[in-house]
Write a structure and sequence with these properties.
The structure is a single chain. A hairpin with a 7-residue loop joins strand 11 and strand 12. Helix 4 runs parallel beside helix 5. This protein is of the alpha/beta class and 397 residues long. The strands form 4 sheets. It has a 7-stranded mixed sheet, sandwiched between helices. Strands 11-12-15-14 form a 4-stranded antiparallel sheet. The chain has a two-stranded parallel sheet with strand order 1-13.
Length: 397
């Protein structure tokens, strides 16, 4: 019969069937429906530096980037990325062969995994993990092998013995995220040294997501894995303008690595977006050249916001884990008499007028993340103060 649709096979590729709609879409919709303060999705509620916004306007008006930019990215931005890596970390990259501009870090992750994995390859990732990691590994036909970061005092820590035990003959790649979303963990030099030694010993590739590199607090320091012995030529490093300059909608990310690794990632990337964000690339090139005072002030502002929200959450009765990096705070809801992060977050808008994200969505081992809830503090100070007051009224006794 004509006009009938076969239901014998689902429309969605089975590799993606487990993912569905992201929790961010669900919770952001809930925020709109209830008029709640959205501390779920990690985007700022103010724009970044005015001079950088004007640089994008200038590029638009001058006709720079309004047509397809070069596939690897505009030369000005690739040069600026290389200069940033040299100035910050003494890492030298050739802008022409070792730098690739992407449509945000999300595309960089996708392109790297699609390029470097064959079906059946195992990928070790720290859980909880950014949700696109699992989806991209699945699209590439890989198998994800989670190594769980677990609470240790006031933070989450990596068990290096568990990491070593997770490596098998099928392991192709380590997917590292530091500073780590959602836990706020920043891997130490000692931990990174051990990871680097393991990668060299077992001849593993590494994709390292460092998009929060400029958001480290207290005594933490961000050290790129590519700086360790034997790592430069086996590491794909991912950066992003959105997190550092508060222009998340521009979707400008990048990859640095050896010529062969970058060429591989570019081969996949050209069939994803091909190119993106033309005029914004010129603006980000100027942003990366901002003086150190910008980065220092940006970090200080986020630190003050972290402390404001952390204090409010603690006063409301949450157990608050110390955030050493990123703009997220992970909390434990068990002191509130709660154990199910999903149920808690779905009820929170009506209960307190605030939206958060259940960390369990970032785990394969859902039970390990069940009592943890993530709040974003990349919002205006008055918004965070309002959220803290709402939570205090809802939970404090």
């Amino acid at each position: 019969m004509t006009g009938m649709t076969s239901t014998a096979r689902p429309h969605l590729n089975r590799r993606l069937a487990e993912f569905g709609t992201t929790i961010f879409a669900e919770m952001s919709a809930l925020a709109v429906q209830t008029g709640s303060i959205n501390l779920g999705q990690g985007f700022p509620d103010t724009d970044g530096p005015g001079e950088i916004r004007e640089a994008a306007v200038r590029a638009l008006r001058d006709g720079r980037g309004n047509q397809y930019p070069p596939g690897p990215g505009v030369p000005e931005l690739r040069t600026a990325i290389a200069a940033h890596q040299q100035r910050r970390y003494a890492l030298t990259y050739d802008p022409d062969t070792e730098v690739l501009v992407t449509a945000g870090a999300t595309e960089a992750i996708a392109a790297a995994l699609l390029a470097l994995l064959e079906p059946g390859d195992e990928v070790i990732a720290f859980e909880p993990y950014y949700d696109s990691y699992a989806a991209c590994i699945a699209m590439a036909g890989g198998t994800r092998v989670p190594v769980t970061l677990r609470p240790d005092g006031d933070s989450f820590r990596l068990d290096l013995d568990e990491l070593r035990a997770a490596v098998t003959a099928k392991t192709r790649l380590l997917l590292i995220n530091t500073p780590h979303n959602p836990t706020g963990t920043v891997l130490t030099r000692e931990e990174l040294t051990a990871i680097a030694e393991l990668a060299v010993e077992r001849d593993l590739l590494v994709v390292t997501d460092e998009v929060y590199e400029h958001l480290v607090f207290d005594d933490a320091e961000h050290v790129p894995l590519a700086t360790f012995p034997g790592m430069r030529d086996r590491t794909v490093t991912i950066g992003s303008a959105g997190k550092t300059f508060s222009f998340t909608g521009w979707k400008v990310g990048w990859v640095t690595g050896s010529p062969s690794l970058v060429a591989a990632v570019r081969s996949a990337k050209q069939f994803l977006t091909y190119v993106a964000s033309g005029p914004f690339q010129y603006a980000v090139a100027e942003a990366l050249a901002l003086p150190d005072s910008y980065f220092t002030a940006f970090r200080a502002d986020m630190l003050a916001k972290r402390d404001l929200l952390a204090t409010g959450l603690a006063e409301a009765g949450f157990e608050v884990f110390r955030t050493a990096g990123t703009y997220f705070i992970t909390t434990d809801i068990r002191p509130l008499g709660e154990t199910d992060g999903f149920a808690f977050c779905r009820a929170l808008p009506e209960r307190a007028g605030v939206v958060a994200i259940p960390n369990a969505v970032f785990y394969d081992h859902r039970e390990a993340g069940a009592p943890f809830v993530r709040f974003a503090f990349c919002k205006r100070t008055e918004v965070l103060a309002d959220a803290a007051e709402r939570l205090s009224k809802a939970f404090a006794h």
